[in-house]
Write a structure and sequence with these properties.
Length: 391
Amino acid sequence: MSATADPATPREGVRAARKRGRTRVLIIGGGINGIATFRDLAMQGVDVLLVERGDFASGASAASSHMIHGGIRYLENGEFRLVKESVQERNGLLKIAPHYVKPLQTTIPIYSTFSGLFTAPLRFLTHGKGKPRERGAFLIKVGLVLYDTFSRDGGIVPRHSFDGRKKSLAALPKLDPHVKYTATYYDASIHDPERLALDVLRDGALAHPGAHALNYVEAIGLSPAGVLLRDHESDEEFTIDADVVVNASGPWTDLTNEALGDDTSFMGGTKGSHIVLDHPELLEATGGREIFFEHSDGRIVLIYPLKGRVLVGTTDIPADPAEPARCTEAEVDYFFDLIAHVFPSIAVEREQIVYRYAGLRPLPHADDTAPGFISRDYRIERRETPVRPPC
């Protein structure tokens, strides 16, 4: 499809782009970051063309854990500005997009009181190196008190609460009976992230007649006339001249730069996989809330209801962006193990998997940092290079 103020046939936008031959800004990548940049420029009246080699929001934007989370995990990295920004964005979406983004009650099972109290600062200073240690109730309590100061926005979500074993098991009877406490706070879910992305895209296309977005169009190189694009539906190639090129291709940023003749090593993405289970017993055991917890390997993982099914995730494995991301059988075993960690009486079989998926996180390159400690913050790299090679 093409996104314009008055779309006609699906490839009409491609023909129009070929005829124009130039734009002020060319955005490569139709995930939520590229789409949001497209909308922002269009709202300012800037001529902008967005191209996406696949479908809009079909990469990392679609392969998420289906949450708009406030970044509670970033507290452990000391990224307080990122936490504040994350919850502001989350709370804003709860207000303006309640048809997509909804409050998500989230419960953390806790098995000790003081575990991790002294190792947490060391984990922060060493970026997660060494053997992981469980986070105890005291550490989680401190984190949630801090999180409340960032998160509530005048009461848009409730404060966190703490319960002991008796009350926790009364609310969640299938929970591991060895649990000592549960902590509950609110985050936000988004069951259809692609729909929100398309709304943002459409908003931009309607804002300015010089704003156009094309899917199944890939940036494949440079020519004397500008950036060389290929229409994957017709297999035809054409060029677009632009004053500015924005590379918003996420985990594939370096591959895009390579195609444009610029050798970079900005990215070091990791793979995150999920499974979706048709499992009524597990669905009932969640009590309609997300179960967000630390697995035995120190990874933060989750189980939560998704459209009458149960979503389980996620892994954090270094991956090659040149290869397709796939959820492996070993990862499925990992997910079954983490379910047993929290709900030991519930059996899960592979036949109950209705869907599995994997995506690549657009993380910065980090040689010696544990995957969970790689910053989720953004950055913009500005490079003064010609849009086209010399003739």
